[in-house]
Specification:
Elements lengths: L1 H16 L25 H5 L13 H4 L11 E8 L5 E10 L5 E10 L3 E2 L12 E2 L1 E13 L4 E14 L2 E15 L6 E9 L19 E11 L2 E10 L5 E10 L2 E9 L11 E11 L2 E11 L5 E10 L7
Antiparallel strand pairs: 1-2, 1-16, 2-3, 3-6, 4-5, 6-7, 7-8, 8-9, 9-10, 10-11, 11-12, 12-13, 13-14, 14-15, 15-16
């Protein structure tokens, strides 16, 4: 039965990707809209180098792989703050609500924002006196269910909006994902296809061009190499850039988990640690409640470092982390 589910999901993903799989190895940066959809949110996940599709065991799975949500049987909430480059900040909130045998639902909200900037022109290089800002917003709802004790499937419906000055671009998208538990050393195999949706165009003047949103295909695995030491691997293919290979590792000692990760073929130039990420997490259990604080550092080369902070609160979901 499990093999039938896996074959069905993989076949579905293959058919969905048929339109762009031939560009594997192609580079088309700058040809899609709403690029914020590609930014990772969870400090724990990004401490592993972003290789999280094959783990997806906390509320940030709402962003990485909705298939993992089906195995979450207790309520949980996650908050993340990303200090992106150029004074840009990115906020994420994810909520998990189990429905018993009916599955699990999740709600996520994301906001990318930055300070106001001066409006300039050729006659006023230091500002006209007016200001503008740029930002992105997303709201999504997820449903996921474990079909068996080892296999879970889920999907997410998302509504997005991008704003620059008075221009607004709105769109919607679908995520689908699955997670399979091998049953040995907590080995998990995950697959996700994210941001399936129509092209988007700024509202107003019909003369504006429309652009696609970045479709992401992820396939990865994770598991304990030995007790306390977890290894992770993932391949990610975006519709507007080359495939990226991600590898991560984490070692847990009591309430502390140390993490590191690396993105291969990410084409991040400059910086001594370009492509590397590091992180740490602290777990505190109070009765049946688990609280985890996570931090991650990522090197973006010439763009500088990226810092991520997360807080996860659960009624028991974090016990196995």
């Amino acid at each position: 039965m499990v093999r039938k589910y896996i074959a069905l999901i993989l076949l579905s993903f293959a058919l969905l990707r048929a339109g762009f799989i031939e560009i594997l190895g192609g580079q088309k940066v700058g040809t899609t809209s709403m690029a914020f959809l590609k930014i990772g949110v969870g400090a724990r996940a990004e401490g592993f180098g972003g290789a999280f599709v094959g783990l997806s065991d906390d509320p940030s799975a709402l962003h990485y792989n909705p298939g993992g949500v089906g195995f979450m049987k207790v309520p949980g909430v996650s908050f993340s703050h990303v200090r992106w480059f150029a004074d840009i900040s990115y906020e994420f909130m994810g909520l998990i609500v189990p429905l018993g045998k009916r599955g699990t639902i999740g709600i996520q909200a994301k906001v990318l924002h930055m300070p106001y900037m001066k409006v300039t022109d050729e006659y006023h290089p230091y500002g006209t006196g007016d200001y503008f800002t740029f930002g992105d917003r997303l709201l999504g709802i997820t449903y996921s269910k474990n079909m068996t004790d080892r296999f879970s499937f889920g999907f997410t419906l998302k509504a997005m909006e991008e704003q620059i000055a008075d221009l607004r671009t709105r769109g919607f998208a679908l995520d689908v994902g699955a997670l399979y538990l091998v049953g040995y050393r907590d080995i998990r195999i995950g697959v996700a296809l994210l941001n399936l949706g129509p092209d988007v165009r700024p509202s107003g003047d019909e003369g504006y061009s429309s652009f696609s949103i970045p479709i992401l295909y992820r396939l990865g695995a994770s598991g304990f190499i030995f007790e306390g030491f977890r290894g992770l691997f993932e391949i990610e293919k975006a519709s507007d850039q080359v495939e990226v290979f991600k590898a991560g590792a984490g070692y847990r000692l009591g309430p502390v988990e140390l993490r590191c990760g690396y993105r291969l073929n990410n084409r991040i130039e400059g910086g001594k640690l370009s492509g590397f990420s590091f992180g740490v997490g602290f777990r505190v259990n109070r009765g049946t409640t688990g609280l985890v604080l996570d931090y991650a550092y990522g090197d973006m080369g010439l763009l500088g470092p990226v810092h991520r902070f997360s807080l996860n609160l659960s009624a028991g979901l974090l016990e196995g982390r």
